[in-house]
Amino acid sequence: MFIAKINITLKDSVLDPQGQTVLRALHDQGKSIVSDLRVGKYLEVKINTDDKSEADALAKELCESTLVNQVIETYRFVTEKL
Amino acid sequence: MKVNVVTFPGSNCDQDVGTILSNVYGADVNYVWHREQFNDLPDLVVLPGGFSFGDYLRTGAMAKFSPAMESVFAYAKKGGRILGICNGFQILTEAGLLPGALLHNRSLKYVCKDVNLLPVANNKIAKTIRQPSLKIPIAHGEGAYYADKETLQTLEDEGNIVFRYEENPNGSLHDIAGISDKAAKIIGMMPHPERAVNPYIGNEDGKLILDAILEKLS
């Protein structure tokens, strides 16, 4: 069994109003050292295989077919053996 | 006129648009549950507003895998006419039937109010609308239209922008409120024309939009 840990964020070219709002709140608290903040999504997908390359390939396929809208989002993932 | 209105779990404007099309335009309206497919070729398929699949993952993302959408893809391939309103527009972009995507409103607030829409002169549908500005209700949290620069340029050049907002309520690029494909057969828009047709509501501007879309069918 593998688990794919997937992070999805808006592309850099896409304005992230949620991230900007949280960033502003941090700045209001005096944390001006924080220079940027992006809000994204974290997904965990369990994949019933012992073959890491199969798990990697499936995680990529799931991202590109369903989990990520590549018009606006970018993703990265790691697969770990459970 | 035969119209198929596709109902997804969470659609909540299917009856609104169906009732208007049937009562005002005399259409023979067939409600298609999302698990069903259809083989008939109606004059129009409507993807209605609402919150399909609870807007989980992304608005419209899950709906494209419904069996009914296989029929919609086949229908589109045969040159069928499709109208996606609000969540229906989000579904059309997720399904790749229209370009771009709908992002959270820049204000991060759900916006529910009347807005003024400007029909865009070089669009095949919009140019038949004689009124320069239309008052139409919007009600959405994720209605900011986004596409990359090249796509926006193509939309502009090919006359695929149907409506712009007079005052941008959500951060849509190029003030876009609705787009179509090049042939103006597939139309997606965030505002709700079906909510501005009945004279009892005090606003019939939505009828001008539906007239323009349905005119091509008669």
TrEMBL record, chain A:
It catalyses: N(2)-formyl-N(1)-(5-phospho-beta-D-ribosyl)glycinamide + L-glutamine + ATP + H2O = 2-formamido-N(1)-(5-O-phospho-beta-D-ribosyl)acetamidine + L-glutamate + ADP + phosphate + H(+). Transmembrane segments: none annotated. Keywords: ATP-binding, Cytoplasm, Ligase, Nucleotide-binding, Purine biosynthesis. It is found in: Cytoplasm. Gene3D superfamilies: Phosphoribosylformylglycinamidine synthase subunit PurS (3.30.1280.10). Its main location: cytoplasm. Its EC number is 6.3.5.3. InterPro entries: PurS, PurS-like_sf. Pfam families: PurS. Pathway: Purine metabolism; IMP biosynthesis via de novo pathway; 5-amino-1-(5-phospho-D-ribosyl)imidazole from N(2)-formyl-N(1)-(5-phospho-D-ribosyl)glycinamide: step 1/2. PANTHER family: PHOSPHORIBOSYLFORMYLGLYCINAMIDINE SYNTHASE SUBUNIT PURS. Part of the FGAM synthase complex composed of 1 PurL, 1 PurQ and 2 PurS subunits. Part of the phosphoribosylformylglycinamidine synthase complex involved in the purines biosynthetic pathway. Catalyzes the ATP-dependent conversion of formylglycinamide ribonucleotide (FGAR) and glutamine to yield formylglycinamidine ribonucleotide (FGAM) and glutamate. The FGAM synthase complex is composed of three subunits. PurQ produces an ammonia molecule by converting glutamine to glutamate. PurL transfers the ammonia molecule to FGAR to form FGAM in an ATP-dependent manner. Belongs to the PurS family. This is Phosphoribosylformylglycinamidine synthase subunit PurS. The gene is purS.
TrEMBL record, chain B:
It comes from the Bacteria. SMART domains: GATase_5. It catalyses: L-glutamine + H2O = L-glutamate + NH4(+); N(2)-formyl-N(1)-(5-phospho-beta-D-ribosyl)glycinamide + L-glutamine + ATP + H2O = 2-formamido-N(1)-(5-O-phospho-beta-D-ribosyl)acetamidine + L-glutamate + ADP + phosphate + H(+). Its main location: cytoplasm. SUPFAM superfamilies: Class I glutamine amidotransferase-like. InterPro entries: Class_I_gatase-like, PRibForGlyAmidine_synth_PurQ. It is found in: Cytoplasm. Its EC number is 6.3.5.3, 3.5.1.2. Pathway: Purine metabolism; IMP biosynthesis via de novo pathway; 5-amino-1-(5-phospho-D-ribosyl)imidazole from N(2)-formyl-N(1)-(5-phospho-D-ribosyl)glycinamide: step 1/2. Part of the phosphoribosylformylglycinamidine synthase complex involved in the purines biosynthetic pathway. Catalyzes the ATP-dependent conversion of formylglycinamide ribonucleotide (FGAR) and glutamine to yield formylglycinamidine ribonucleotide (FGAM) and glutamate. The FGAM synthase complex is composed of three subunits. PurQ produces an ammonia molecule by converting glutamine to glutamate. PurL transfers the ammonia molecule to FGAR to form FGAM in an ATP-dependent manner. This is Phosphoribosylformylglycinamidine synthase subunit PurQ. It comes from Leptospira kobayashii.
